Amino acid sequence: MTDQPNAGGGKSHGRLSIRASLQPRDLMAEPQVRGAWTAQVITLFPEAFPGVLGLSLTGRALALGLWNLRTTDLRPFGIGRHRNVDDTPAGGGAGMVIRPDVMDAALREAGPGLPVIYLSPRGKPFTQARARALANGPGMTLICGRFEGVDQRVLDAHAVEEISIGDYVLTGGELAAQVLIDATVRLIPRVLGNQESLAEESFSDGLLEHPQYTKPALWEGRAIPEVLLSGNHAAIATWRRDMAERLTKERRPDLWRAYGETRMDPAKDRQLSGASDQSRDYREQPKEPKR
């Protein structure tokens, strides 16, 4: 990949023409689109970007200027002849910690105006709701950690939000940063070809998504549920909702509890617990009279 540094030392990913090629695409072209949602990434490995973000719908949206991607290489802000960005942890222990003065210089180079997020396993879990909130803003600055992490003082000084993508540890924050960017960019208007698909996907209403099927109608002895072939749109909508509720209850009790606290009718909960798949799939459940 050919990198063209900008005036500030970062790398910008802007408009490009999408074409078949055996060579890596140059996604560093200037200028960026003024006013577009922007992801600013501070990383020791700027060559990791755009990665998968340069493909498919997010890559097309990047090419069309629906969002901007900038990377700031942490290494040039390192200290001394060897541009050291880290040092041993205070109090002893294994590993190395990114220095506060180095990260502070990189953050100042990245510039103000965007919320700053540090990808960290100790952060709050990333959710669809947080992705929607970020998509409605101007963008975000992401800190990709390495080694044992980043000096706490610089995180406090810049009021950095810590976000986790799961209860596990990666070798660095670059993959996690791409997860956050992908989940957020797809919510920006015009990025997805069919915005209506956002309304029915997992977590859109606090539930997991219902099962999906397509042709052939019969495959390896397994048939598409008849209700989906019935043409009865009301029955199909009921089936999909019921299946979303059932899957959420079985697979994600934590989501089901949160959903139940805000929306669930206790009578509906009993139906989900006791009704058979057959009765749920092919006949309507009587509603209890309002009291």
Q: What's the CATH C level of the domain at 37-186? A: Alpha Beta
The overall pLDDT, averaged over residues, is 84
What is the strand content? 15-25%
> Biggest sheet, strands in spatial order?
1-3-2-7-6-8
Helix/strand-derived class? alpha/beta
**Coarse shape:** elongated
CATH architecture of the domain at 37-186: 3-Layer(aba) Sandwich
According to CATH, what is the topology of the domain at 37-186?
Answer: Alpha/beta knot
Poorly predicted segments: 1-8, 16-25, 274-286
Secondary structure: number of strands:
10
Domain tRNA methyltransferase TRMD/TRM10-type: 40-257
Subunit structure: Homodimer.
Protein name: tRNA (guanine-N(1)-)-methyltransferase
Catalytic activity: guanosine(37) in tRNA + S-adenosyl-L-methionine = N(1)-methylguanosine(37) in tRNA + S-adenosyl-L-homocysteine + H(+)
Brief synopsis:
This is tRNA (guanine-N(1)-)-methyltransferase. GO terms for molecular function: tRNA (guanine(37)-N1)-methyltransferase activity. By secondary structure, the protein is an alpha/beta fold.
